[in-house]
Amino acid sequence: MSPDPAARPKDGARRLSHARVLDVDPLLEDPKTRIVVCCGAGGVGKTTTAAALGLRAAERGRKVVVLTIDPARRLAQSMGIDSLDNTPRRVKGVDDSAGGELHAMMLDMKRTFDEIVEAHADPGRAAAILGNPFYQSLSAGFAGTQEYMAMEKLGQLRGRDEWDLIVVDTPPSRSALDFLDAPKRLGSFLDGKLIRVLLAPAKVGGRAGMKFLNVGMSMMTGVLGKVLGGPFLKDVQTFVAAMDSMFGGFRTRADATYKLLQAPGTAFLVVAAPERDALREAAYFVERLAAEDMPLAGLVLNRVHGSGADRLSAERALAAAENLEDPRIVDQTGGKAGVRNSPDTHGSSQAPESPAESSASESPASESPASESSAPDSSAPEASPTPSPEDDVPDADTPERSVDQLASGLLRLHAERMHLLAREQRTRDRFTARHPEVAVTEVAALPGDVHDLAGLRDIGARLATGEPELPESDV
Amino acid sequence: MSRLQVVSGKGGTGKTTVAAALALALATKGKRTLLVEVEGRQGIAQLFETEALPYEERKIAVAPGGGEVYALAIDAEQALLDYLQMFYKLGSAGRALKKLGAIDFATTIAPGVRDVLLTGKACEAVRRKEKSGRFAYDYVVMDAPPTGRITRFLNVNDEVAGLAKVGPIHNQAQAVMRVLKSRETAVHLVTLLEEMPVQETADGIAELRAARLPVGRVVVNMVRPAVLDATDLELVRETPRAALARSLSGAGLGGARRGGHAERLVDPLLAQAEEYAERYALEQEQRSVLTDLGLPLHELPLLAEGMDLAGLYELATELRKQGIA
């Protein structure tokens, strides 16, 4: 620890030293950018990021559609739209002076699936499929359907060519990778051997090899029937028969969308928060995208904390706070004394209670240390399990707190902030060490949630500057 | 105390952590608990700092007082193969089914089957008894899918009933539902003191109740310490900046004059206090929304050093202290 606060390197505690900075504006403004995919673990602000990017691009002159998949309809709320359905709606209140537009939509996976069926089967057959119980469950329930339909919808939007830029939010999957895998999985099922078995058990034996002949195809379907129940299997068979003509189409479209994701006009943004799990998943995603030849633009790191006083370390702040709480430690009028004379920051406040000969000059309401209740145990204030602040009320006969007590509270708050910064820094460093090639933009943590376009605009501005806004500049 | 404790929560709220802490807490005093994972993420292994869990019940921790925590990562495919083996003595036919894509179909595509297999395995562990007649596990804690999917996940009966009307999957679903809707089960929701997770918690509770699934407790995770209270924050706004600067200077933080080190600290410290005040007000608001839900409410502190094994024991102790276990 440096003895003089001014001697600490200005950025040492906080900034990513080696990571490249991601500049989102050129990406959003470039007419060659046609698709931006936001992916990442749940709960890191993916949907908000997608909406903020869409708004920023629109206000910089692009015609944008934001496709959100999240069933919580949060995007709808932040964009002031009551209901997002399966078609893009124009968002009002967007600054269109640069000639841009913002549209938003929420994926309705069942509706999307129905539309595919309606578009590709004749009316009679379509009705048979739509009424099939297996289809109804598949289209509404299968964990991968959402991912498949998201990609399908993305392909459709791109195919319409009405928008310069499509911003896609990805489903809140079990794993962030599901949306890459599920279409293939569903596609391979719909094209797979099983389907052929279900369609015509007798034909497959020769192709599938001797093993299957031994077992016997009828036994196969027999076992499936036993396990799943006969009627269920019948539903599946009817469904498969009705869908027969469409299977090739599913595979083809899944492949086409996959290629679209690898195309030069596509940019992936991995969204994360500076927390261990979120960044672990982000790293995993970065590696997976590289393996799939998908173009990664960079990492959006949400909810990063900063401090305008980051030269004052947590240790010094806590030591100073203790000085203020316990006037015996330091002669308060001395001004320059203090921290350096009391290295034992952990034990000092545990001194036995004795009536303090309070000689402090500027603390008229100075109380004995025993009445100081906001500092339970200076050694670990962050871990204090205080369940609710109501328990923290000062003695009734202490109506006012001294300036020193307030200052000490501010310092403890600062120490907490610095600990948080250090933890976030460690987590980020781990990611940067593993992926120094990934450009990063940081978005400062907001105290509250985003509710409106103004909030989204603010996030967009923070995304573009790439560094957390310091609290200092808010004053 | 329900023997099957299901822990759900919005993504990012730390439901795996809370589930693990709960399993530890319930294992105290010589009890045996099983912590099950159903989403194939290996979150439990990471939390307990062990290698990836196989599909096998394995002891991963010893609780204070001699209890034991076992863990199991349930794999739907393996569960189905076991199940087929148990009931149909399939042998190599199981492998053939796998090759054909039938297992993949049943566990990932056929709606609801996967969930029946996963919940079924957990319920089997709840009911399992040793030769002595004692339950194999005193408690089973499930790290369940997130709030948005929990009702659908647990309400397998509805999902499957329309499809598998007869047969073992149907029977299995019935048996599972008998456990899940009984007092043997409690579904807990983990949240943060933020708007979206709280809203999702309220929605999740309404859905669970509509499906007649037993809602247990609400656990607020990562609660930050109360450093300043409402009175302090009010006073901070009224205090002259020069007085604060003098006070900081008195604590040894440099000069109080304009441009001095202490004086330059005042603005950023006040800005942090303003931020804190805003968040404090939001948190109080969310806390009252949660209180209005009328469920037992618990709060777990944010761990300063991030989540590690020591922190997990700390949270377990806290849960016991609050009477949740």
Automatic annotation (TrEMBL), chain A:
<feature type="region of interest" description="Disordered">
    <location>
        <begin position="323"/>
        <end position="400"/>
    </location>
</feature>
<protein>
    <submittedName>
        <fullName>Anion-transporting ATPase</fullName>
    </submittedName>
</protein>
<dbReference type="GO" id="GO:0016887">
    <property type="term" value="F:ATP hydrolysis activity"/>
</dbReference>
<dbReference type="InterPro" id="IPR027417">
    <property type="entry name" value="P-loop_NTPase"/>
</dbReference>
<dbReference type="InterPro" id="IPR025723">
    <property type="entry name" value="ArsA/GET3_ATPase-like"/>
</dbReference>
<feature type="compositionally biased region" description="Low complexity">
    <location>
        <begin position="348"/>
        <end position="385"/>
    </location>
</feature>
<dbReference type="Pfam" id="PF02374">
    <property type="entry name" value="ArsA_ATPase"/>
</dbReference>
<feature type="domain" description="ArsA/GET3 Anion-transporting ATPase-like">
    <location>
        <begin position="33"/>
        <end position="304"/>
    </location>
</feature>
<dbReference type="GO" id="GO:0005524">
    <property type="term" value="F:ATP binding"/>
</dbReference>
<dbReference type="InterPro" id="IPR016300">
    <property type="entry name" value="ATPase_ArsA/GET3"/>
</dbReference>
Automatic annotation (TrEMBL), chain B:
<dbReference type="GO" id="GO:0005524">
    <property type="term" value="F:ATP binding"/>
</dbReference>
<dbReference type="Pfam" id="PF02374">
    <property type="entry name" value="ArsA_ATPase"/>
</dbReference>
<dbReference type="GO" id="GO:0016887">
    <property type="term" value="F:ATP hydrolysis activity"/>
</dbReference>
<dbReference type="InterPro" id="IPR016300">
    <property type="entry name" value="ATPase_ArsA/GET3"/>
</dbReference>
<protein>
    <submittedName>
        <fullName>ATPase</fullName>
    </submittedName>
</protein>
<dbReference type="InterPro" id="IPR025723">
    <property type="entry name" value="ArsA/GET3_ATPase-like"/>
</dbReference>
<dbReference type="InterPro" id="IPR027417">
    <property type="entry name" value="P-loop_NTPase"/>
</dbReference>
<feature type="domain" description="ArsA/GET3 Anion-transporting ATPase-like">
    <location>
        <begin position="5"/>
        <end position="180"/>
    </location>
</feature>
